[in-house]
Amino acid sequence: MKKIWLTLIFLFNICLPVKAKELVIATSFSPDTTDYIAQQWQATYPEKKIRLMNRTVNSLSRLLAQSNTEDVDLILSSSPFLFQHLQNSHRLLILPEKLQKNHHWVPKSLVTTTTAVAFSGYGIFYHKELLKTLNLPAPTDWDSLMNSNYFNKLLISSPSRSGTNHIMLEMLLQQRGWRQGWQDFLTLASNVSLISSRSFNVAEKVRMGLAAAGLSIDTYTTYTHDDPRVGFVYFPRSVISPTFIAIHKNSRNIEDAQNFISYLLSDKGQKIVAEHRFAKYPVVDLPKNDRLYAQQQKLLAEPLLDYDLLLARQYLVEKLFDIAITFRLTQLKEAWALIHAKEKKTNKKLTALRQILTTIPVDEKQAGDEIYLSRLKNDRGFAVQQEKQWAIFFQQQINRVLSQIEEE
């Protein structure tokens, strides 16, 4: 009898359908974007299922750095900060040499574990109807957003909450220089109505007419191409934003994960990433008759960011932004409103007062000093001391402006 039962159990088990292995992809991209890639992959390989984990970069950073993360196979994101964090935590698998491609687009510290499969660009998303109502010209570049007519009509997000906004700010700092870049961005900040928690929300709020313009990556504006109310313009010197992919160290489906990366790098995969639904530029050249060819080549011609510098001063840039702008936006806007009113009344630019509001307490030498940046990041006591000094500095600058305007 016992033998009969054992035989029945054995037969029952072998007759059960074998559960297909899932390829789990953790990504910071929206479901609309990544669902399309998953559908195309499964149309080609019906037996190979994909499960997507769509999270914010900060959420992924916490989740994937845990030692007991066993379900995730691949990480797909445009955030170099996320991949560097995972690399530092020894959570990324070394890729086969055949997949270690596009090195010039990948931070040097990540070339053995991470590759680029597509890219995007940065620019300004704007609401045409609202601009027309406000009698404002469409924005074209950074300088156009500094116009006082945009006061309280611009949306941005914080670098500490958005890698997209962080890279756009760093792009400005590297292209115009540390001092001039901050001066320009702090001037632009005078027109900010709200600092959004996520860069995706910037495009969404502009689309809804809650702001006239916002800083955005091109990907977030894809689904508005057919909306005549809105528009998007690339920064004239926009750098590219690569789409990175890597395999998690704890992956149980390494072969399928490698095949998925190969698929995205293949001719078919590159056509898929260039589709309207995925909204990226392929890493291979588009046909010359493609409507996106000229913009793709323009983006590719722009020198890349210095990733080493970007990553080294990540903490510095995030903290300076929050202390200078996020935590005192209301006061800043009050000070700038008084400056604008005074300039309009006197028909004279108040250069000295503007200079006070756009000066920062960290010079260019410090911003590139590896010892200073490392200590700021790793020595909590030192960081707190520096941040307190910065907070006092920015508050005193605002107070100086308010006091001088009252005296005039």
TrEMBL record:
Coiled coil: none annotated. One of its GO terms (cellular component) is outer membrane-bounded periplasmic space. Keywords: Signal. Transmembrane segments: none annotated. Residues 1-20 form the signal peptide. It comes from the Bacteria. Gene3D superfamilies: Periplasmic binding protein-like II. It holds the Pfam family SBP_bac_6. This is ABC transporter substrate-binding protein.
